[in-house]
C-alpha cells in the first residue's frame, strides 16, 4: 500500500487520491462543506495538501455492516488510457455447445459458446467435456484452442491422468479471453431463456458450483491471480422496484446459486465517498487475467503439456492429429471453423487505465463499469442491457466510446483534477 499522504476531513468515509488520503463524507457534512467551498470541484488536492497525514479510520456503513475501507481515487483522465481492446463474446442462444461428434476416426467433444461467462464457467465446463473425452479409456487428448476454455480443459484432463497437447492459432495472452473484464459472471449472456433446453439450468448450476470451488484454490497466491473485491453499484435515483427490462430475454440463473456469494448490502449515503446518493455493495471474485493466464500456461507446461501453433481451416484438418480424442475449445473461432452460425458475436470494448494499487475495487454507474485490477483498470460501457454489442463483430477500438465511458466514471471523482 502507498504511504499515507495529506488528509482533508469532511466526515468519516474516505478516498485516497494518489498517495494522499482524503477523508470524506459524513455525506451531508461533506455536501455542506462542498457548497461552502464553491461546489464539489473546488475540493481539489491543492486545498488538502497542508494537513498532516494519517490513514482514515474505516467507518461502519450500518450497525452490523462491514466498514467501507478507504478507497483510492481513480485518476480518471484520458491520458492514463494505456490501451483499448475489443473482444467478441461467443454467444449461443441455446447455451454452450458441449456435445460430441465423430469426425473421421476422431471423437470431437465440443466446448465453445460460453458468451460472457467463459472464465467463470470454465472449470465446470472442463469437468463435463473431459469426462466425455476420457470415457472410452483414451489417454492422449488434443485440445484445440488456448484461451480460457482450452487451458482449463487441458489442465483438467492432465489432472485426470491424460497426456495433453494444445493446438491453437494463438495462445494466451494473444487470445480473446485475455481481453475479458475479469469478474465472476457465470450467467452473463450464457443463453436465451426461451432457447435453452430444459436440462440446461441444472447443468449450468453444476458447472457454476464446480468452477466456484476450483477458483477458491487459486486464492492467496503470489501475484493474486484470483482475489475477492468489492463492487459499488451507484445511482443518482432510487433503484427501480421492478426488474430491468431485457428485450431479448437472456437467461439468468443466479437464484440457483444464491448461497455462493455474500448478500449485497445497501449503503446509506454517509457511508461511502461517492457523489451519487444510492449505493449497493457486492463482493465478487475477480480474475487478474494476465497473472492467471500465465499461471495456467505454466501449470499446463510444468505438468508435461505441449503447445503447437496450428490453424485449422475445416473439421477435416483434424485428421492430421495423432490423438483420437479432440476437445474443441475454439470460442468465437468455432463459427468459422465449424460453420456454426448459432455462434453470435457480442462485442465488448475495454479502455485500460494504468494500474493504481490503491484502486482495488469496482464501480457500476450509468451503464459504465470500472474495475481496479492489478494488471490494469478496466473502463467499460455496458449499455442499458445485455444486448449491448449483440451481433456486432467489429473488433476495431473506438476511442470516442472509451473517452465517453471514462468521463462518466470521472464524474464520481470530482476532487481529481482533470
Ligand atoms: C468485453 C468482454 C468481457 C468479458 N468479461 C468476462 C468476465 O468478466 N468474466 C467471464 O467469465 N467472462 C467474460 N467474458 C467472456 C469470456 O471472455 C469468453 O467467454 C471466453 O474468453 C471464451 O474463451 P474461449 O477459450 O472459448 O475463446 P478464446 O479466448 O477466443 O480462445 C479460442 C482459442 O481457439 C483458437 N482458435 C480459434 N479458431 C481456431 C482455428 N481455426 N484453428 C486453430 N485455433 C483456433 C484461438 O487461437 C484461441 O487459442 C468477456 C468477454 C468480453 C468480450
TrEMBL record:
Recorded family membership: Belongs to the DAMOX/DASOX family.
PANTHER family named among the record's database cross-references: D-AMINO ACID OXIDASE (PTHR11530), D-ASPARTATE OXIDASE (PTHR11530:SF11)
Enzyme Commission numbers on file: 1.4.3.3
Gene3D superfamilies, A to Z: D-Amino Acid Oxidase, subunit A, domain 2, NAD(P)-binding Rossmann-like Domain
InterPro entries xrefs: D-amino_acid_oxidase_CS, DAO, FAD-dep_OxRdtase, TAT_signal
Cofactor dependency: FAD
Protein name per UniProt: D-amino-acid oxidase
Domain FAD dependent oxidoreductase: 140-416
Oxidoreductase found in the keyword field: yes
One Pfam family in the UniProt entry: DAO
Taxonomic classification: Bacteria, Pseudomonadati, Pseudomonadota, Alphaproteobacteria, Caulobacterales
CC per GO annotation: cytoplasm
Catalytic activity: a D-alpha-amino acid + O2 + H2O = a 2-oxocarboxylate + H2O2 + NH4(+)
GO biological process: D-amino acid catabolic process
Organism: Phenylobacterium deserti
Amino acid at each position: 500500500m502507498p504511504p499515507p499522504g495529506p488528509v482533508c476531513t469532511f466526515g468519516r468515509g474516505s478516498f485516497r487520491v494518489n498517495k494522499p488520503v482524503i477523508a470524506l463524507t459524513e455525506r451531508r457534512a461533506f455536501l455542506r462543506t462542498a457548497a461552502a467551498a464553491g461546489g464539489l470541484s473546488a475540493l481539489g488536492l491543492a486545498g488538502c495538501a497542508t494537513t498532516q497525514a494519517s490513514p482514515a479510520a474505516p467507518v461502519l456503513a450500518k450497525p452490523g455492516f462491514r466498514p467501507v475501507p478507504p478507497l483510492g481515487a481513480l485518476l480518471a483522465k484520458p491520458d492514463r488510457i494505456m490501451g483499448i481492446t475489443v473482444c467478441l463474446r461467443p454467444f449461443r442462444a441455446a447455451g454452450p455447445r458441449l456435445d460430441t461428434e465423430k469426425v473421421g476416426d476422431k471423437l470431437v467433444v465440443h466446448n465453445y459458446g460460453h458468451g460472457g461467462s467463459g472464465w467463470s464457467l470454465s472449470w465446470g465446463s472442463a469437468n463435463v467435456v473431459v469426462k466425455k473425452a476420457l470415457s472410452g479409456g483414451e489417454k492422449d487428448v488434443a485440445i484445440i484452442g488456448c484461451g480460457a476454455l482450452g487451458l482449463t480443459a487441458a489442465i483438467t484432463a492432465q489432472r485426470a491422468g491424460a497426456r495433453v497437447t494444445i493446438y491453437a492459432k494463438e495462445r494466451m495472452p494473444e487470445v480473446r479471453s485475455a481481453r475479458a473484464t475479469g469478474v465472476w459472471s457465470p450467467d452473463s449472456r450464457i443463453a436465451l431463456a426461451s432457447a435453452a433446453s430444459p436440462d440446461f439450468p441444472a447443468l449450468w448450476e453444476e458447472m457454476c458450483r464446480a468452477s466456484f470451488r476450483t477458483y477458491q484454490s487459486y486464492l492467496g497466491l503470489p501475484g493474486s491471480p484470483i482475489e475477492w473485491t468489492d463492487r459499488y453499484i451507484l445511482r443518482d435515483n432510487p433503484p427501480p422496484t421492478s426488474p430491468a427490462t431485457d428485450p431479448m430475454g437472456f437467461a439468468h440463473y443466479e437464484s440457483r446459486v444464491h448461497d455462493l456469494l455474500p448478500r449485497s448490502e445497501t449503503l446509506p449515503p454517509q457511508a461511502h465517498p461517492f457523489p451519487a446518493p444510492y449505493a449497493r455493495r457486492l463482493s465478487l471474485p475477480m480474475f487478474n487475467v494476465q497473472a492467471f493466464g500465465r499461471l495456467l500456461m505454466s501449470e499446463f507446461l510444468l505438468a508435461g503439456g505441449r503447445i503447437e501453433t496450428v490453424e485449422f481451416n475445416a473439421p477435416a484438418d483434424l485428421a492430421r492429429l495423432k490423438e483420437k480424442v479432440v476437445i474443441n475449445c475454439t470460442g468465437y473461432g468455432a463459427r468459422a471453423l465449424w460453420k456454426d452460425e448459432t455462434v453470435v458475436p457480442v462485442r465488448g470494448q475495454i479502455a485500460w487505465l494504468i494500474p493504481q494499487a490503491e484502486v482495488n475495487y469496482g464501480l457500476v454507474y450509468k451503464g459504465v463499469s470500472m474495475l481496479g485490477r492489478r494488471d490494469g483498470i478496466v473502463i467499460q460501457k455496458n449499455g442499458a442491457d445485455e444486448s449491448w454489442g449483440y451481433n456486432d463483430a467489429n473488433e476495431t477500438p473506438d476511442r470516442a466510446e472509451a473517452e465517453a465511458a471514462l468521463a462518466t466514471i470521472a464524474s464520481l471523482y470530482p476532487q481529481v483534477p482533470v
